[in-house]
Amino acid sequence: MGADNSTLNQKNRTVSMCDDGMTVTIRNNYDPLHFHQVHGENIKLLKNGAAACRSEGFCKGIAFSNRPVLVGEPIYIKFLEISTNWSGALRIGFTMNDPMTMKSKLPRYACPDLTSIQGNWAKAIAERMAKKDSKLYYYVDNNGDVHYGLNGVEHGVFFGGVNISNKLWAVLDIYGNTVAVEFVNPHSMNPECAVEASQNMCLLPKNKDVMSASALNFQINRCLSFHCVHGKNVSLKANRTVASRKYGFNSLAYVFTECSLKLEEKIYIKISRTNPKVNGNLLYGITSCNPSTLNPHDLPENADDLLDRPEYWIVRNDTNSYEAGDVIVYSISTEGEVTVMKNCDYKSALFHVDPTQPLWLFFDMVGSVSEINMLGSSVPDSALSDADFEEIMSVSLPSKTEKANGQQTECVICFGEQVDCVVYRCGHMCMCYSCASKLKNSANDQCPICREVIQDVIRIYR
């Protein structure tokens, strides 16, 4: 990123927090964020600039961070005051434009006024997320994708396309039902809500009683993606690092690692979304079959039928109970011993494989786990060749069947028609107009993405 790190006045600081008898150490190299002196005319700054309040109306509430933020730096926001008099909610995003240059020309709205100007990106959160005392966080990753979450639960990629080649300031439009917000210092946050956005920290698990503070850290030195060959009921996004099972299906949700695994390499997979209403466990396994040689139409409904193929296949049923935010670690030793860890809790060898041939890790997302996120892997330096280092520095390209910006183009209900409508009020674009209309009038009248009740379906024209 083009930002001069020296201008950010970074400091090495360590904070220890105790919860249920466990000490967790969180490192933060950034000065706490405050609001910039440049802001919309209806904004008043409070708490020495840490909080911003919209004093009148429902608009002219654009505000910025007082300093540039870095790629991977989490921005934590607490909702201080919410109004029931207005519709709409907070808009969050980034700008490449120094706020000082916009002092005399701030528009009324971030969306679409500010975002129509080059170098600005923002999107509105759902109204239901804006609740008093709730804590929202968001950050931009190395691919320009903006991730977000609420009260310590990550919701995945919010939008993409951010240019990270220059300095970026945080943008907040205090709009609609959102009246006052505050930048939260991560040092003061409860560990359940403190999520380290960089890929060098493991998410704090629910079952902290089995964890030690030292076990929370892991180091990633290899970027991994899922293979472009996958089951027909899977959608890939965020440069193929996120795999989602399509709504309404519970089979043929196969995904494979793009590259074969290194011995002693640790693969980190985060559970992004679960559906407790669906029975069944996550299936995973090891294969010597290069996914590039597979025809997706030949993948069987029953994963056990893979054992009848001529290649080397091992299929396992993961009996662990997972929640969104859990992290699973897979590794193969030089002796072929496979181990699996849940939230860094060590498990003994589950089975052995032949370590003399190339091996790929694969999943079949049946059961309650409906979305997984490939965080990356840690590989011993001795296991990396020059070609591997070149691979680490390269950027994965999306497959031909997915848009580079991660947008859904195929209806998640029929998979035959293009998305041509938007669901009101959540705003998701994931279905064709015909399927969306039928869903709205059915007993299960909920958005397939967020489960919010569908109030209306609006046709769009591209």
UniProtKB/TrEMBL annotation:
Chief subcellular location: cytoplasm
PROSITE patterns in UniProt: NHR, ZF_RING_2
Pathway stated in the Swiss-Prot or TrEMBL entry: Protein modification; protein ubiquitination
GO annotations of cellular component type: cytoplasm
Gene Ontology terms, MF aspect: ubiquitin protein ligase activity; zinc ion binding
Compartments, as annotated in UniProt: Cytoplasm
Domain NHR: 32-186, 223-377
InterPro entries: B30.2/SPRY_sf (IPR043136), Neuralized (IPR037962), NHR_dom (IPR006573), Znf_RING (IPR001841), Znf_RING/FYVE/PHD (IPR013083)
This protein's name: RING-type E3 ubiquitin transferase
Organism: Larinioides sclopetarius
